[in-house]
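User: Run a structure prediction on this.
Assistant: Running it now.
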Amino acid sequence: MVDFSGYFKSYFDYLPILLIVISLYWTRIVGGPWVPSSMQVIHRMLDMAEVGPDDTVYDLGCGDGRVLVAAAKRYHARAVGIEIDPIRYLWCQILISVLGLRKQVQIIFGNLFNADLRKADIVVCYLMPDALSKLEKKLKTELQPGKRIVSNKFSFPTLEMVKKDGNAILYTITPNQSEINSQ
């Protein structure tokens, strides 16, 4: 039997382990587990959405920041990531600083369901179907007609699909779907 009594002298010694455990399971409860998209899928998603330098791309559950970096570096867009996992949030902050993208990329620590998405031209997400169901009403309420949404792998329940290429699924908010004008 292994004796760990010499390793943990106070409750603070358990803090790193606790943070890792919370990091691994908290995102599963909120929107989905962290599963990074391949760069090939990310480029396909951003190409489908026709990201350009005048666009603001929001990545909901930005994980390690790879969508944000691609949007900023390859497409010269402004990018905003929302991440609830404290470890991945800090990783993104460091990554954006090291890459010199601070002026183009912003990382918000918080729950994507509480974030204001009205400034988004394009929303990118890789969330579980139940989270997409919950997110759909928010997108219809906050996004203007013509704004684009790209999902990796999973579909929104009632948004009309514009295009599908492999795992990348493109949607556009239409005047009939947007609840902004009907309020």
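The chain has one domain: 37-172.
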